[in-house]
Amino acid sequence: MATLTLQMQNHSMMAVLCEPGVRHELSEYFSFNVPGAKFMPAVRRRQWDGKIRLFNSLTCELNVGLYTKLCRFAADRHYHIQLKDSPYGLPNATNKVDHQKLVSSQAMWNMPFAPRDYQYDAIVHGIERKRCLLLSPTGSGKSFIIYNLMRWYLNQHEKSVLIVVPTTSLVEQMYKDFEDYGYKVSEHCHRIYSGKDKKTDKRVIITTWQSVYRLGKEWFEQFGCVFGDECHLFKAKSLTTLMNKCFEADYRFGTTGTLDGTQVNKLVLEGLFGPTKRVTFTRDLQDKGTLAKLKIDVLVLDYSKELRRINVGRTYQEEVDFLVGHEPRNKLIRNLALTQTGNTLVLYQFVEKHGEVLYKMIKEKSNSVFYVHGGTDVSDRESIRGIVEGSKNAIIVASLGTFSTGINIRNLHNIIFASPSKSQVKVLQSIGRGLRKADNGQDTKLYDLCDDLQWQSKKNFTLNHSGERIKIYNREKFDYELHKVHI
Fold this sequence. Notes:
Blueprint: E1 3-8, E2 13-17, H1 20-29, E3 31-33, H2 41-44, E4 51-53, E5 61-63, H3 67-77, E6 80-84, H4 99-108, H5 117-129, E7 131-135, H6 142-156, E8 160-165, H7 168-180, H8 185-188, E9 189-192, E10 204-208, H9 209-212, H10 217-220, E11 223-229, H11 237-245, E12 251-256, H12 263-273, E13 276-278, H13 282-287, E14 294-302, H14 305-311, H15 316-325, H16 327-338, E15 344-348, H17 351-363, E16 369-372, H18 378-389, E17 395-399, H19 400-403, E18 414-417, H20 424-432, E19 444-452, H21 461-475, E20 479-486
Parallel strand pairs: 1-6, 7-12, 7-13, 8-10, 8-11, 9-10, 11-12, 14-19, 14-20, 15-17, 15-18, 16-17, 18-19
Antiparallel strand pairs: 1-2, 2-5, 3-4
Helix pairs in contact: 5-6, 7-18, 16-17
């Protein structure tokens, strides 16, 4: 019977010492095809086989977060696992939680409210396991879970805490959330983005990954705990490199509302942070009244035979260019936005050829419309968010990139998908923008535009993408109806 000897190299990587044949098995077991790789130039030139290999068969290293899956690999083959101690401890190290002491500590932090049951369970799970990927939907209070784990760590340990987020807006939002929880952020938290100073004496650093991933390992040595918020975006090699530089951080927590459904992405993230823990479900929060009820109207846009015939054989980009430039379709979006009750979010994908067009069309009819895209200053975005939360009939025309992930608006009533998307992450995150309970208790309405340009038996690209979104609605048990609209 083969034996796998595991030893922590640091808090990021562990060595898996075994026979050459078993190393080959591990390399294959932890290898996955990259979606769409066959279209990539490197694969076409046969310079790469299109696979991501998580086990390095040369150095025999594997991310510590995959320890549980490594145990499953060994059990399935009746291999023996032997743990060898190192200065970094063992890969299965855990804590025992004193619940009475934890609750007392939370009371001392003077938070405005106590954790809900599922939040408390997530906090306890994180403390016990020391590393995990927390999967919890938008509106479930991920930043509050992060805050509690952070406060516990700072009370128990001497090293600093690193919180990494995808955008500058989320840096500001996390900072503001901590302030709302009663934390003296000006004394304890340092923000890094857009060239801000990387050095600080404060123990909590909130930063975008773009601002720090190029820094040397010596900068990351100060952190004993690292959080990756909205970590479904942690796919790039630079982000993996960032996490692996945090080799002194034995506490690692990833949080996200959605994963993109691909095994590659999930396993890479679990390698960086640890096994996935489902905190709660959107439908459960809706049933308990924590989140707003959601009603989805799928508007199936029925185009003329002439337009269907014209679009036959077009590429995906040509089809999208036609749709975002089609004036009757844009007028439909404008009229839909103007006739809603409450605050409305119109989400688009292309700034110049769609976002600007929609904004100008709506602005001709309304003075309460705001335009947000990647070039909008962070302070302006925060100002718009504040204005809308205090408004009753405002319209935000925003790009998917800026508002689909992590932006909280507490008084949003309607969402319009103006651009076609099949991304599970973008769809669920976008829906999450409107699920926070409105001040007036109004339910959330989502309008999903489905473009039917099918000609005879040939379906168009965006019609297929609509089908993928409907699969998501069915899987998440969302309430939706189909409505045909002639255009």
